[in-house]
Amino acid sequence: MGREPSRRDLLRTGVAAAGIGTIAGCLGDDGGNGNGNGNGNGDGGAEENDTESGDGDDETGTETEVESEANESGGADGENGTDDGNESGGNETGGDGNESEGDNETDGNESDDADGGSYSVTMEPVGTVEFDAVPETWAANNGSWADMGIALGQEPPEAVYLANRYHTQLYDEIPGVEVDKSGMTSLWEGELDPEEFLALGEDVDVFVMDPNFPVGRSDNWEDGDIEQIESAGTPFFGNSIFSRGYEWHDYEYLTLYEAFGKLAELFQEEERYEAFVELHEEFQTNLEDVVPGEEERPSVAIMWPQPAEAPEEFSPYLIDEGTSFKQWRDLGVEDAFATTDVEDFHAGRSAIDYELLLEIDPDVLLIRGNEAKTAEEFEETVLAYMEGHNVASDLTAVENGDVYRGGPLYQGPITNLVLTERAASQVYGVDGELFDRGRVADIVNGDL
C-alpha cells in the first residue's frame, strides 16, 4: 500500500487542481514584463536595489542595503543605502487612512470546510489559488507582506528578498511582539535565482510575492521560470503594492488593508484581520485629532541619499498611493515635488542635487536608507553633514533641524502604526502614544 498523503502532498495537489492556467493571470497579457525588464521598477525585497549601494545594516549600520526594487541589472528596489532606524511616531489623516478596511471582498474565495478543508483565494495578478490546507511555512517578498503575516499570528517567513530591509527593530516599540529574523534567508543579495526558488519550494508552502516582479525587474528571469516553480507545487500569491510607479504593473493595485485582508484569507485568519481593522480605524480617529489644518501642514521631500551618511545627491520620491507612503498621506503633508518637474525615482531612476533642492526648499527633508540608526545617530551623521555643507546648510529644513529619517520602503499593519506615530512626532511635534500597543500584542498573540 502507498503511504498516506502528507499535508505537503495535499498542498501540492491543491495547486495542481487550480491549474497552471492561473499563471497566465500571474503574468498578465504581456507576460508581466511590462516595461521594467530588469532596469525598470520593482517591488519587493529586491525591489529597490538600483545599483545604488550603501553600507547599512538595518540593525547595526553595517549591512549592504540593496533596496529591494531592482538593481538596474536586476537587484533590489532602486536604492541602495544604509537603512538604519529606530524611531516611533506618526499620525495620519487621509489617503490610505480608511482604505476600504473591512470591505475585503470574498468573490471567488470559497471554503469547503471552515475547519481545515480546501479553499481558494482570488487576487490580482495571480487569479484564483486553491489550497487543500492552510500554509504553515512561507516566503515573502518584503517587509510589507512579512509584517502582515506577523499581524496574523504566523511564524516569520523563511525567506524574503532582502532580510536587511525587513526592519524588525520596529517591533521593539510593542511589548509582547518579537520577531527573530536571524535565520531568515535573503533571496536577492546577488542575482535572484529561479533555481533557489525551486529548492526553497521544497520547504515552503507558498511564495507570498507578486510573480510579475522578478520577471519585470530581473534580466535573468523569464515567464517560464514562474511556470516551472508553480508546476513543482508551490504557488505565488502576492501583489506589488509599495509603489505605484512601475509601468509593468498594469493590473489592480491594492491598499495596505486590502492586501492584508487577502493574506488573512490565505492564512484563514479573518478574525485577527477584523481586529486590526477596528484598531486601525481607532488610530485614524486619533490622527484626526492631531493633524492641523492644511495651511499649517509642511511641505516634505522624501529622498534616498547618495551616499547614505554624507549625501551629495538624492533619488526623489513623489508621494503616491503605494503603501510606502501611507503615513505621509494619512498625515496630510504636502509633497514638495508634486508641483515641480522632478521625476519620481521609481519611474525614471532620476536624481537631484542640493542646488535643485534649494530652489524647491521644502520645509522638511525625509531621508530614507537610514532606518538602522536611532534618531540621535541620524542627527550626528546625516544632519551634521548637511549642516556643514556649503549648499545644504542654506536649506530651510537644515537650518531648522527638520531633517528626519523618512521611514523604510515597506510597511505592514503593525509597522505602519509605529512609523505613523513617529512621523506625527517629526512633522507635528506630537508627544504621546496614538495607538494601543497592548491591543496590538493581544491580536498578534491570539487574544481577540
Architecture overview:
Residues 22-122 are annotated as: Disordered. Residues 28-44, 87-97 have a biased composition (Gly residues). InterPro entries: ABC_transptr_periplasmic_BD, Bact_iron-sidero_bind. Helices cover 31% and strands 11% of the residues. It is α/β, with parallel strands linked by helices and 448 residues long. It has one domain (1-243, 252-448): Nitrogenase molybdenum iron protein domain (Rossmann fold, 3-Layer(aba) Sandwich), CATH 3.40.50. Strands 9, 10, 11, 12, 13 and 14 form a six-stranded mixed β-sheet that branches. Strands 1-2 form a two-stranded antiparallel ribbon. Helix 3 crosses helix 7 and helix 7 runs antiparallel to helix 8. The protein is globular, with a radius of gyration of 21 Å. The protein starts with 6 loop residues before the first helix and ends with a helix.
Q: What is the strand and helix layout of this fold?
A:
Elements lengths: L6 H12 L3 H6 L37 E3 L11 E3 L37 E5 L3 E5 L6 E3 L2 H9 L7 E2 L24 E2 L7 H7 L5 E3 L3 H6 L5 H9 L24 H12 L2 H19 L10 E8 L6 E5 L8 H5 L3 E2 L9 H4 L3 E2 H7 L3 E4 L7 H13 L8 H4 L3 E3 L7 H16 L8 H8 L4
Parallel strand pairs: 5-8, 6-7, 9-11, 9-13, 13-14
Antiparallel strand pairs: 1-2, 3-4, 9-10, 10-12
